[in-house]
Write a structure and sequence with these properties.
This protein has 5 helices and no strands. By secondary structure, it is an all-alpha fold. The longest helix is centred in the middle third of the chain and has 27 residues, at 27-53. It is elongated.
Length: 111
């Protein structure tokens, strides 16, 4: 499952990239971009918290991978959004946090 989320985000980003090059984005595409950006920013925050608090080397390694992957996806999405004239959030929105970094830490801590 952990590999599934970045793959979904990357697939959506690639889809937006193709659309932004050829046509105006629909409201659904814009909404996806906003939610993807917010959710990915929340993942980075949760992973940073996990990296700081975890005692398990495996959790710290996974957290660093999440930070790296989601930061790269965010950067790519920002570039696409700029071309499509979409202003993305700089911080996770309430919907994108899904309980916040603390909730995510609680989940990771229970693993």
């Amino acid at each position: 499952m952990h590999k599934f989320l970045p793959v979904c985000l990357a697939t959506g980003v690639l889809g937006l990239s193709a659309l932004s090059a050829s046509a105006a984005l629909s409201s659904a595409d814009r909404e996806f971009a906003m939610k993807a950006a917010s959710g990915s920013l929340a993942e980075v925050q949760a992973a940073q918290l996990a990296e700081q608090r975890a005692t398990s080397p495996q959790i710290k390694q996974f957290a660093q991978r999440m930070i790296t992957d989601h930061t790269a996806a965010n950067t790519e999405l920002q570039q696409i959004a700029k071309q499509a004239d979409i202003s993305l959030p700089a911080q996770p929105t309430r919907q994108g946090r899904g309980g916040g970094a603390e909730a995510a830490w609680g989940h990771w801590h229970s693993i």
